[in-house]
Design goal:
Distance between the termini of chain A: 15 Å
Largest sheet of chain A: 5 strands, parallel
CATH topology of chain A: Rossmann fold
Structural class of chain A: alpha/beta
Number of strands of chain B: 17
Helix content of chain B: 40-55%
Number of helices of chain B: 24
Oligomer: heterodimer
Radius of gyration of chain A: 13 Å
Largest interface: A-B, 17 and 18 residues
Shape of chain B: rod-shaped
Number of helices of chain A: 5
Largest sheet of chain B: 5 strands, antiparallel
CATH architecture of chain A: 3-Layer(aba) Sandwich
CATH class of chain A: Alpha Beta
CATH superfamily of chain A: Response regulator
CATH topology of the largest domain in chain B: Arp2/3 complex 21 kDa subunit ARPC3
Radius of gyration of chain B: 71 Å
Number of domains of chain B: 6
Strand content of chain B: 15-25%
Shape of chain A: globular
């Protein structure tokens, strides 16, 4: 049972992830863009962010960099989720501060497993 | 004190003079006639005067004082009282003082005796000096010795005057080169001197008393002819001495035999001496003057002769005769120029020697004789061997000792004219050369840039008449003024030196000229002016500009194409990405429903969800391939290529594709052991290409078939290349469709009929990748039998 923040400008994806990860037993917060995500992080403690890369106003890479530059307490884990799956894109995401990188389209089962794996790693 | 040797010599001479004066005084007083207080002849006075005359004026006072002392002492020694002696000394000194004052005051140097005209002044000075001495002595005798003034005055004046008349001229001749000129030979001179002195001695000898004192006079005249004035004066002095001494011995016409009173004897001797001096002196001066004049005349004549004979200008002296011009004389250059020997010309008519031009010259001479002209000049060709070009100048010289003369001067101009002709020819050639270059503009200027020459090319290009430019316009006036201002930093001395510049023609036309300006210097490096050589490059410049514009357009088009290509790839990437996001939602919703986490699903619904997911997968595959193709096509450079061993690619491909292998289909791999299949390339791309091919082969091979993957490095039928073949025993491709296999989105009809899914992009991707590696891909297939895909890549250089 952890508190997750789903950040994606696509409402369908936000909804899909909220349902899938909520079913897995997590508390879900959502944000539709980068600035909103940073506001939520400043207000609420979050264990893990599922962060889209291609967003208007502020890209997921920038959000990750800001979070890593001035981390809130507790510092959230970041799972970066993007339609861009080139090795260069993955490297850029990890460099910006992501703990792991998943590509769209994703398989719900494997995504849920990846989230659990990250949280377990944090817990230990 | 000075140690000047000349000064010392002078001192010695003066001392010697004083000694002689002293002894002369003593002797003369001793030789004075008995009963007389004064001597008949007083040479000491003349010697003193001579000494003073020959000394510089600054010594005079000292010398005169010395005379007073020396002659005074001599009188004392000869038996006179001291005071009387000193006063006689004063009398002596007064003579020298007056004489020197009258004779010696001259503007330049000491007095000279050269012409008979100089004699009156000398005689006057001697007479005045003697009179002064006589006056002093007369006064002394009258006051101190109770004697008669007049008698003493007369005798002293006569004695001093006679002596000075013989001594002073000799002094004046000393050191004057004119006074040593003679004509006689040494022997004749010796005979003359000896005979004269012998004659005087004989006549005045004690054994002779006849009145023959006139007899030596012709000898003196002879002496004036053969002796120099100085020698004659010395001879006269010697004769005077002889007369005085011998008469004092009682000999001669004035001796004891004549029975004369003392004063009469003295007067006769003095007269004799005066006559000797006055006969010899004027005659000697006359002869000497004549000699000098003659010598001068000879020298002038010699100068004239040499100016004719030694002149390098050919000169002829011609005498006009009734029948032409007779040659009186000529020099060597004249003979050389005319090509005729001197002896062949002398006395002949010159016209004959001049050949055809003879009459021209004779006519010119006649005009001079008639007084119509005084000079004439003409350049003629003389028919000597070789022919020469000679400038002849005639001048009329009337009334010479040889009568009227015509002087002809000849100057050889042959070489000068030849050089001039060469120079003119060269100038003509250069001018012709410059004029002939009509395509090039050549303009020369002076040092200040004022145009001095314009060739035909400049005239035609710029449209100016040369007269409008030469001496009127500066070179920079031909340039475009605005351009000169704008490009001032490229100029030297306010004028362009090289490069392309705009000229403005006479009609305002603008010409682009390629300009080169060079300074012209003479042999000494002095700047003469500037030479501008320029060519019209207007058309060339225009053509270059057109070419540059075309190239720019081309480059823009290429840039535009590249930009379009890039945006196409970006567009594809964006579209694919945007397609994926909703597909993610669709697939995720399908998955969420199938897993029943949101509610139960019956079998019918599950089947429908499965179909939706399958269609979604196909769409995603299509998107994936499109994305890949666009990425491959935008990666045409090989900068990130590395050494790749194709054996690794084959192994990884088999590993990747094995899960796709349908039931009953077997995969066979055949590849070499050694590292003989290495290429330069992108391992990921190559793997993707091979995976596509192998996946296709597996997809189209139905149950029981075989897919064979073969790798060959450097095969005999294709040396230097690595070849991968993928062979299947599948459904094959109809022959008429094989040419379309590599087109995007093309699907073979056999595949469609067999309901085998695919995007139609797989082989397009393969071909793009292989071609990016400079390789080739070919497909051969037979329907229902199978397909062979062959990929050939260049091997890495073994070296």
């Amino acid at each position: 049972m952890a508190r997750l923040l789903v950040v994606d400008d696509d409402e369908d994806i936000r909804e899909l992830l909220s349902i899938a990860l909520g079913v897995a037993g997590h508390e879900i917060l959502t944000a539709s863009d980068g600035p909103e995500a940073l506001d939520v992080l400043a207000a609420e403690p979050v264990d893990l962010m599922v962060l889209d890369v291609s967003m208007p106003q502020m890209s997921g890479l920038e959000v990750a960099r800001r979070v890593r530059a001035t981390p809130p307490a507790p510092e959230p884990l970041i799972l970066m989720l993007s339609a861009m799956g080139d090795p260069d894109d993955i490297a850029a995401g990890l460099a910006a501060g992501a703990d792991t990188y998943a590509t769209k389209p994703f398989n719900i089962k494997s995504l849920t497993r990846a989230v659990d794996t990250l949280l377990r790693g944090r817990a230990s | 004190m000075t140690h000047d040797p000349a000064f010392a010599r002078r001192l010695v001479l003066i001392a010697l003079c004083y000694v002689v004066i002293f002894w002369l005084c003593v002797l003369t007083v001793y030789f004075a006639p008995e009963g007389s207080d004064v001597a008949v002849w007083w040479p000491a006075g003349g010697l003193g005067s001579a000494m003073v005359l020959l000394s510089p004026p600054r010594y005079w006072v000292a010398l005169l004082a010395g005379i007073v002392v020396v002659t005074g002492m001599a009188n004392v020694v000869a038996g006179r009282d001291l005071d009387v002696g000193l006063l006689f000394g004063v009398s002596n000194a007064s003579e020298s003082l007056v004489l020197v004052a009258l004779l010696g005051v001259r503007r330049h140097g000491r007095p000279l005796l050269r012409a008979p005209e100089d004699l009156p002044r000398l005689l006057l000075a001697i007479a005045a000096g003697a009179a002064s001495s006589g006056t002093c002595a007369g006064t002394l005798v009258a006051v101190r010795l109770d004697g008669d003034f007049v008698e003493t005055w007369t005798s002293v004046t006569a004695a001093h005057g006679a002596a000075s008349l013989l001594i002073v001229p000799l002094a004046l001749f000393v050191g004057d080169p004119r006074a040593s000129l003679t004509e006689g030979t040494r022997a004749i001179q010796v005979i003359q001197v000896v005979s004269t002195l012998v004659a005087f001695a004989a006549i005045h000898h004690t054994s002779q008393s006849l009145p023959l004192s006139f007899l030596p006079l012709p000898l003196l005249v002879w002496g004036a002819q053969v002796l120099s004035p100085r020698a004659l004066a010395a001879e006269a002095l010697a004769a005077g001495l002889l007369v005085t001494v011998l008469t004092a011995q009682g000999g001669g016409p004035f001796g004891t035999g004549a029975d004369l009173t003392n004063s009469a004897q003295a007067a006769l001797i003095q007269l004799d001496l005066v006559v000797i001096a006055l006969v010899s002196l004027p005659l000697a001066l006359n002869v000497s003057q004549r000699r000098a004049a003659l010598r001068e005349a000879v020298a002038v004549g010699e100068t004239y002769r040499r100016s004719l004979t030694e002149s390098v200008i050919g000169t002829l002296l011609l005498s006009p005769a009734d029948d032409g011009l007779r040659v009186l004389d000529l020099n060597e250059p004249a003979g050389d120029l005319l090509g005729i020997g001197r002896d062949d010309l002398l006395g002949r008519h010159w016209a004959e020697a001049l050949g055809p031009h003879g009459t021209t010259v004779v006519d010119a001479a006649r005009e001079m004789i008639d007084g119509r002209s005084t000079s004439w000049e003409r350049e003629l060709t003389v028919e000597a061997e070789p022919a020469r070009c000679v400038r002849i100048a005639l001048s009329w010289v009337p009334d010479t000792s040889s009568g009227d003369l015509i002087v002809a001067q000849l100057v050889d101009l042959t070489e000068h004219r030849a050089a001039q002709r060469d120079l003119e020819q060269e100038r003509d050639f250069n001018a012709a050369l410059l004029s002939a270059t009509t395509g090039t503009s050549i303009i020369a200027t002076d040092r200040d840039g004022l145009i001095a020459y314009v060739n035909k090319g400049a005239e035609q290009l710029l449209g100016y008449q040369p007269a409008a430019l030469v001496g009127r316009r500066h070179l920079v006036d031909l340039y475009d003024a605005d351009e000169l201002r704008a490009r001032a930093d490229e100029m030297e001395h306010d004028a362009p030196t090289s490069g392309d510049w705009t000229h403005v023609g006479a009609d305002g036309r603008r010409l682009r000229m390629s300009v080169n300006v060079t300074p012209m210097r003479d042999a000494g490096g002095r700047l003469l002016g500037y030479l501008q050589v320029s060519e019209d490059v207007t058309e060339r410049t225009q053509a270059q500009e057109a070419l540059r514009a075309a190239l720019d357009k081309e480059r823009q088009a290429v840039d535009e194409l590249e930009r379009l290509d890039r945006s196409k790839s970006e567009f594809l990437a964006t579209v694919s990405h945007e397609l994926r996001t909703p597909m993610t939602s669709i697939m995720g919703v399908n998955e969420l429903l199938s897993t029943e986490v949101v509610g139960p699903v019956n079998d019918r619904q599950r089947e429908l969800l499965r179909r939706g997911s399958r269609a979604g997968q196909r769409l995603l595959g299509l998107i994936e391939n499109t994305l890949t193709l666009s990425r491959v096509e935008s990666l045409t450079d090989d900068t990130h290529h590395t050494v790749v061993d194709l054996r690794d690619i084959v192994v990884r491909t088999v590993e990747t594709t094995e899960p796709l292998c349908p039931l009953g289909v077997s995969m066979v791999v055949d590849q070499p052991d050694g590292p003989t299949a290495r290429v330069m390339g992108d391992a990921n791309q190559l793997e993707r290409a091979l995976v596509n091919v192998v996946a296709n082969a597996l997809k189209f091979t139905l149950g029981g078939g075989v897919v064979r993957v073969t790798l060959q490095g450097d095969p005999p039928d294709e040396p230097g290349r690595a070849v991968v073949t993928v062979e299947d025993s599948g459904i094959g491709i109809p022959a008429d469709e094989q040419s379309h296999l590599f087109e995007r989105f093309f699907r073979a009809s056999s595949a469609v009929q067999a309901s085998i899914p695919g995007s139609g992009l797989g082989l397009a991707i393969v071909r793009s990748i292989v071609e990016a590696h400079r390789g080739e891909v070919t497909v051969t297939s037979r329907l229902d039998e199978g397909t062979v895909v062959r990929i050939s890549l260049p091997l890495l250089d073994q070296g």
